[in-house]
Amino acid sequence: MSKVAFITGVTGQDGAYLSEYLLKKGYKVHGLKRRSSLFNTDRIDHLYQDPHVEHQNFYLHYGDMTDSTNLIRLIKEIQPDEIYNLAAMSHVQVSFEMPEYTGNADGLGALRILDAVRLLGLESKTRIYQASTSELYGKVQEVPQSETTPFYPRSPYAVAKMYAYWMTVNYREAYNMFACNGILFNHESPIRGETFVTRKITRAVARIALGIQDKFYLGNLDAQRDWGHAKDYVRMMWLILQADQAEDWVIATGKTTPVRDFVKMSFAEIGVELEFKGQGVDEKAYVHKCNNPEYQLELGKCVLEVDSRYFRPTEVDLLIGDASKAKNKLGWECRYQLQDLIKDMMQSDIKLMQKEQFLKEGGYDTLNYFE
Ligand code: NDP
Ligand code: GDR
């Protein structure tokens, strides 16, 4: 009998990788998808199965983390062996604009899942993975951060996720449920959302290389993050639910890099060396050398400026994780180094932008409703 998994946030970066990973393992996968006015299933279109075919193993259901009755009904119908609660308003800066909604979807949303399992009497059947985050550590208390480092959240997003974290621990202790937190540090990929800093950078570098765009704008270049590849991290989500005991786990590469260096490395990937001048909001980056004849970037051209609109009211300055527990007890290893991640993202974004350029040159990109 195939195991049955229910993934909330199936249309997101991690939901897409995890779905494919579990399907390859022979699972039946059910995903929760929000209704939207356009298709928002690009990341999972390759997994889609027509509901009219026999032996379907990938199913999508409409729903929302703010709608308890919907979640209870779905969990009752699906009877999952494993739930991966990945759905969230996951953008830290946006959470300052939408604190109440973020609390509802990211904090109470997790409670709705836990409580649905309890209400339906599935405590001993259904294992739950909660997508917790290194943002919980917030203001630096100690480095590297591990399962025992105290939390100090610095955004409505992190505060909501802290509620979800402790609810998961509480339901595990109070009702003996197999509920675990994966405290995952930043993880990225070619399908990372376009407004997170890594993807914003690799997209912009590709566009600048192809002459579609002149320059781009970022906020705090000094922030340091422990960046891994999402493919490595979804493998870990699954391992966490296969462990003998329900516990909380830090997943990280153990290396940290400033945003500025991520920019340098992304340009270096296409053979362009940058020079940074100025400080704070006056900092800019210029083309210093272009070693790739394919991309005709003028020397001295300004390609990056700092824009204060991308600074956060409270910032998380430094994240670097200690994943020794997961390495020792679950045998987890990360296969991708930062350089491999950047290569993967740059190659994919160059291809994507070449497509965009092709459409533009063919005159297929314009849309005017009143023409
Ligand atoms: P994404 O932003 O790519 O995906 C989030 C998913 O949640 C999307 O499918 C989104 O749907 C869905 N969603 C958002 N709000 C709701 C809602 N109210 N009801 C139902 N679905 C909703 O995030 P990631 O894949 O990067 O991250 C997955 C999870 O892991 C998130 O909870 C995130 O906070 C957490 N996390 C991520 C880390 C990372 O570095 N990526 C690190 C640590 C934790 P839609 O497509 O319609 O927008
Ligand atoms: P983060 O990721 O906040 O760590 O949350 P993000 O990529 O948004 O920011 C990383 C760092 O880069 C700085 N930064 C910018 N960030 C964005 N988005 N846009 C910019 O223009 C920019 N310029 C500088 C930020 O200030 C920050 O310091 C991600 C999300 O996936 C969360 O859901 C997850 O929980 C954490 O990672 C771990």
TrEMBL record:
Cited Gene3D superfamilies: NAD(P)-binding Rossmann-like Domain, UDP-galactose 4-epimerase, domain 1
One GO MF term: GDP-mannose 4,6-dehydratase activity
Keyword NADP: yes
Protein name: GDP-mannose 4,6-dehydratase
Residue span, NAD(P)-binding domain: 6-345
Gene responsible for this protein: gmd
Cofactor(s) this protein requires: NADP(+)
UniProt cross-references to CDD domains, sorted A to Z: GDP_MD_SDR_e
Enzyme Commission number, as recorded: 4.2.1.47
Family: Belongs to the NAD(P)-dependent epimerase/dehydratase family. GDP-mannose 4,6-dehydratase subfamily.
Keyword line: Lyase, NADP
Reactions performed catalytically: GDP-alpha-D-mannose = GDP-4-dehydro-alpha-D-rhamnose + H2O
Highest taxon above the source species: Bacteria
